[in-house]
Amino acid sequence: MAESAIGVGLIGCGTVGGGVAKLLREQAEVYAQRVGRPIVLCRLLDKEKDRVIQSGLADADIVTDDVDSFFDTPGMQVVIELAGGTGAASTFVQRALKAGQHVVTANKALLAEQGPELFALARKHDASIAFEASCGGGIPCVTALTFGLMANRIDALYGILNGTCNYILTEMTGKGKTYSKALADAQELGYAEADPTLDVTGGDTAHKIAILASLAFGVKITDGQVPARGVDQLDLNDLRFGAELGYDIKLLAIAERQPDGDSIGVGVEPCFIHKSELLAQVGGAFNALSVYGHAVGHTLYYGAGAGQMPTASAVVADVMNIAAGWYPKAFQAMRLTPDLHEPAMLADPDSLLSRYYLRINAMDKPGVIAKATAALGDAGISLSAVLQHETNAGSYVPVVIVTHQARRGDLLEAVRRIESMDVIEGPPVTIRIVDLPA
Amino acid sequence: MAESAIGVGLIGCGTVGGGVAKLLREQAEVYAQRVGRPIVLCRLLDKEKDRVIQSGLADADIVTDDVDSFFDTPGMQVVIELAGGTGAASTFVQRALKAGQHVVTANKALLAEQGPELFALARKHDASIAFEASCGGGIPCVTALTFGLMANRIDALYGILNGTCNYILTEMTGKGKTYSKALADAQELGYAEADPTLDVTGGDTAHKIAILASLAFGVKITDGQVPARGVDQLDLNDLRFGAELGYDIKLLAIAERQPDGDSIGVGVEPCFIHKSELLAQVGGAFNALSVYGHAVGHTLYYGAGAGQMPTASAVVADVMNIAAGWYPKAFQAMRLTPDLHEPAMLADPDSLLSRYYLRINAMDKPGVIAKATAALGDAGISLSAVLQHETNAGSYVPVVIVTHQARRGDLLEAVRRIESMDVIEGPPVTIRIVDLPA
């Protein structure tokens, strides 16, 4: 070994932290070979000190539940933050950076909310923040986007970035389960948290696309700027109608450069994409990110978006890239992070163009469909398909309408008019149809 | 700009070189922002000097057809080698490295043949070689494999690494074209060279898997060690029978850690994979690489595997990573390249286990299939399916046999026995069926 050992402190020894400790212990020799110096886990901070010691993941004498004692550890040059959340975790990260320690984090909520400030703090103290694990779990999509695709003007990102939601949608589509049943199964299998709110409402996905879009477009976007709709309101019937039309449903994180070349349309919502698309083939708890660059065209990155060892794989790769000395240099030399960029010019969501799927419950009598579709026509929205099955049900029948490209604002206004008609029952269902670039 | 400009010399201004020159000119300002210093194309070497000048890709005064004059350019810190081949290109690369210049190359043939020597030479002279464009065109799979997945013991690679072959197979499968017709169409569209030999015989794919497997497994593999079979002998009938059984055909580059944990099975051949696999969805001239890591599980990288701008995207990213100063540091600090590794322990191809598809032309009379399958049984190979359609054709009928897992050596021996039977016409067709890991 040409260089001396590098000391690593770990905050939070839950599922992912346990995986990190395991990798650093089991692969110590291989990692030392690969980066040219030993990587030593020298301190571990966890509120549940006794549980960690009993788990045998680390020697008892390096485990502490005292924050000051953790940060006083001599020779600790890298701090891995896996505490989660935006409170204590933020304090920990700031304290490490101010001491010139490099930070590795999987904390998407923290970076989506406070990224610019924290990146600036790192820069000021000649430290760095590595965050591959914050988006797409084990998929090295941050590395690919920043270093591999750097010669491109990125035009669009389309991501399936939440394994819980993708599992739920795969079960609903493939096995005809209702949303509630699919969620319950995801919880039983450990794919969903006991409180799945942040996942199923799209909040977690919004964090990730805020981070990825900031990097891809060289702008500042925070999670509060990303309109998000989740999977929790989806009706199995719409997935079935969509399938008849050739579409699969996916919770997509979208960031698209608008035709003006400068503004960016960003959002998270369940979308229909054509079954033949590669993204439509991403099933179960897997994630994928499609990136469209002006030179490279379409590239896609696929893998496990969560889970103990996949996420630990990304965390430990970050630690190794810091230990090898190159990542801190890249972080300081390159203008990649949002602290160096202007706030994004975000397109007004109402101005975004797309095709749409609509489902209305129409009274089963002559002229109703004509009346409803006239509201669309009045808004300048033309139709590409209308689907109504024969039914022997009651007085209302579901009618599915597929539009050509329309401004979202115009569409929503027409939908409000349709909803107010006395021949229509309940609110119409609106789902965006995304035609991915060739 | 904190730092001074970095001078770049370009050898070979053909299709990809033209794309590189275009990107460096059009995006100069953006790139300078991203890496913190201007990147300046300061010299261009091409035998067809006049053509290059007339193309307007570069100022006439930087274009030369004189090698010495090229290398005498002051301030040239990076040399992009796009000459191709293993003769003059090798000389150019060596000359640059000996002068301490960093080299960026897309030359898979050169690296697969002389990689260890050239990497060692770079190391000796404190230079570096960047080669993202050598494998998978615009897909940043080298970056992902080396930096992003570094915490993993890689267990297997499965790659679709030649766009020409994948285009041909997609046309044969999807449109029922013969091999000759699909090749002619590929040539007309510019997907295949006038002399397509290196592509269609699997040689180009062998170069790429030699490079990728060397990196992934931390060993030394040269292209001569990779057994390769191409797509040029494929019969449309076998693709049809395979489709009936649920399979798609792909020219796969395979490198798999064997059950002993140390030896590696490596090769290139047309394989059947189940239609539901993500790799089966990779159509047309696109490429993809599936990587299985012990921690991350399955990840996949997809994009354009060739073409002017995608390949230029990878070349320029390499230049930018060198200009930013981090790549040379990573190259020197990390033990990634095959010059630092032992020759691979390659598994005897005959010892590799797989399932197989066989097609024989059997005389249409009682007992023939029993006789043929007995040869397999005698070799300890059991069958999972036998497919024989009713026919009103002549005296021989095609019979398709699918085996369970068998040693390749045993299978080929049984096939030789079957071929020698007087009730069998012509050589049996043998196609490996790859069951990708879960």
Q: Secondary-structure blueprint of this entry?
A:
The structure is a homodimer of 438-residue chains.
Chain A: E1 6-11, H1 15-26, H2 28-35, E2 39-45, H3 49-55, E3 63-64, H4 67-71, E4 76-81, H5 88-98, E5 102-105, H6 108-124, E6 129-130, H7 141-148, E7 154-160, H8 163-175, H9 179-188, H10 197-200, H11 203-217, H12 236-244, E8 247-257, E9 264-274, E10 286-293, E11 297-304, H13 308-323, H14 326-333, E12 353-363, H15 368-378, E13 383-387, E14 396-403, E15 406-407, H16 408-419, E16 424-433
Parallel strand pairs in A: 1-2, 1-4, 2-3, 4-5, 5-6, 9-16
Antiparallel strand pairs in A: 7-8, 7-10, 8-9, 10-11, 12-14, 12-15, 12-16, 13-14
Helix pairs in contact in A: 1-13, 5-6, 6-11, 8-9, 15-16
